[in-house]
Amino acid sequence: MNEHAIELRGLKKSYFPFQLGPLDLTVPRGAIYALIGPNGAGKTTALDLIMGMGRRDAGDIRVFGLDHQRDSVEIKRRAGYVGPELNFQVWGKVGRAVRFVRGFYPDWDDAYCAELMKVFHLTAGDRIASLSFGAKTKLSLLLALSHRPELLLLDEPTTGLDAISKQQVFAELLKAVEPGERTVLISSHGLADIERFADHVALIKEGRLLLHGRMDEVVDRFRLAEFFTADGRGIPFRDGFIVLKQEGNRWQAVLDQQQGIPGWLQSQGAQQLSLTPMTLEDLFIALVREKEAA
Amino acid sequence: MKNIVWDHVRRWWWLWLPSCLVYGFIVWSGVPDRSDWTVSFVPIAMYLGIVQLSCDLRRGEVPRVLRTLPVTAKQIGWAWWWASVGLPVVALAGITTLVWCLAPHFNHGPAAAGRPPYIMLFGFFSAYCSHSPVTGTGCFIFWLTNALLFGPLFFFFTGTPVPGIRSGKGRLRGFVCSVLFIVSFFSMMWLYRLFPPHTTRWEVFVAVAALLTIASGFRLETCVQGCLGSLPTRTDQVHAEALVGKMVQGRVESLFQWFPGARHELSNPLKGSGGLRLLFQTIFLPLSGLGLSMLVLSGLLLYYPMTAKDTSGFANIFWSVFSMFLWYASLLVLPRVLLQIRWLRTLPVATVTLAWVLTFAPVAAMLAFMGLGKLIFGIVYPIPQMSFLSMVHQGCLLQIALATLLVPLIIWRGLDALVLALVMGMLLGCSIGTFYLQKHLPLSANAGVSLVLILVSFLLTRLLLDRSSRVYRPRTSPTGSPFGLFQGGSKI
Prior knowledge:
The complex is a heterodimer. Chain A is an alpha/beta fold. Chain A is 33% helix and 32% strand. Chain A has helices spanning 43-50, 72-78, 94-102, 110-119, 133-145, 163-177, 191-197, 215-221, 261-267, 280-293; strands spanning 4-15, 18-28, 32-36, 58-63, 66-67, 79-82, 151-155, 183-187, 200-205, 208-214, 222-229, 241-247, 250-256, 270-277. A six-stranded mixed β-sheet of chain A has the order 6-7-8-3-9-10, sandwiched between helices. In chain A, helix 6 (163-177) links the parallel strand 7 (151-155) and strand 8. The mean pLDDT of chain A is 87. By secondary structure, chain B is mainly α. Chain B has helices spanning 2-28, 41-48, 50-59, 61-68, 73-102, 120-128, 136-159, 168-187, 191-194, 200-218, 220-229, 234-256, 262-267, 275-307, 311-320, 322-338, 341-344, 351-380, 388-393, 396-404, 406-413, 417-440, 443-467.
């Protein structure tokens, strides 16, 4: 059995003026992998390409070791997808939409589907036209989860949901991946939720991978530093040292501990250096801003 | 005011252009002297005038912006009047004059029959057109009748209720205007019979229409204040659209439950087959049902004015305009399925299978609708019936094949301005092509071309699903949300 759920190698796709990649990414089996990045970074494009929506320009996509084009039906049978497309009106009622999707999955779990309907406060007779945005998102999630997929691809699944609905959605997702055999690849802007939910993270910007790894390692790797320099002395720029603010001889910066920046800073004359842990959101803002400034 | 009018023209030029072309084509064809000329009023009056304003008001974006601008209600009202009545009348006058001046130079008239066409465009026209000369009087009467339709339409439209009217008097006025607005659309089909040119009745029509056109100017300010004052917020609009969707769906369901087995399905939406079979049904049933209803309704409306002149020719003409129903029904049904292609593509179904269902379900539905329509017509109308092969020869199969091109077209671009313009071009091409092919293409070639076109639609659909990334981008409709049954929200 292949130990990776998804492997992207040298993946490239370009639309004028945007270019994704070359992107190399490996999502291990059983991982909850978050794909984060600013708007237009290429997250949806990457997820679309994995699901066969559009064709790559170059590179290789393998899901469970299968070729994503040749074995697309087999991959989709084992995967569930929740995306921004919430237009289910054509099916009229929730039950009809469920019936439609169920027809494609021989391993559809009716009992689990009924349970999810109860949790998400949906009934088979509900008219889709009168569902709220949040309820449609829940319907989308229900349709993706009910066949107990091995892989879940979630593109902004909590956008537009209130705090309680978000909690419900994440609780159900966690329940779904509890046995540890299911893999989730999620793209979201809700970084606080992602930090709690995901165990791996990859940050992409302008189609390029900036950072990836285990969530705890990535967050722990960086520190928010405050320090002073004597007599207005400057500090040279280098990789892993991101200046957020400088007022006179007082500095605020993000440091990459893996590159030994704290030690290097002290050698450059930094005084009263204080280091504090960062949240994923702080780190995201610092890294994205640094690239914009560059 | 000028800016508002020009903004309107800039946003709707794509609908103006084909409408003007169609109008020019009708005048060129010498229609004023034909018995069936009044049928051609419908698209011109609908597309050029009030329908565009109606779309703007439905969508709500334009009036919402106008409300914030430093312009008076009177200025907005006159701008709307010019956009819906003034400019179309001027445009039609220009086209009529142009055609009238050009026609003699292209040997249009009895002498043109059998001659090679000068240029391809006019060649098509000559193939279709009657051999009646384009006369100055004919042109004037045609223009005047057409132009005067805009005024009454605008008058009734500005009297229709705006959201928030609570008084009994206001509601009554709104109800009367709504009924007259709807009746005015349908009455256009009967216009020739009701008001034959050069008669007292026609003169009365001209006088009343002129009066209503002038009268519409006096209610502009109140109408604009009503429209802008009670303009719903975006949230209200979403709720209202959902409510309308719910109401329409409820009505359809209450009718649908009379069919055998349907009551059971409606009460148990989870029971029954799903997957591709349900997808096929979702395209097949509404398309054939809607097409059939349109066919029967149009038959009822057209039977009286058309058979009064020529009973035997009714079937011929009727089946020749059959393409319209195919196109309209396809435009109403197909987008609601095709615009969720992104979601369909995430399901475990091979591209070739999905392309097959999306292309051949409409073909099957249209063939069924053609067969059923023929059966119903055979029973209801005492007119000579055509054989199935004659219908194919008349171009019905070719029109079905052309209508299947809507599938890759909508998948490719959604329902944007270009697609709608192309659709109208194809509609025009269909009606011209049908008459042309009837004369020049043998039955076997007609059927062969149709099959090739269906195959091309299938291959294009497959190619787009497989290779294009564009088809999976979010789509919007340029006219708000009228496309697709039960479609809530302007973003489709």
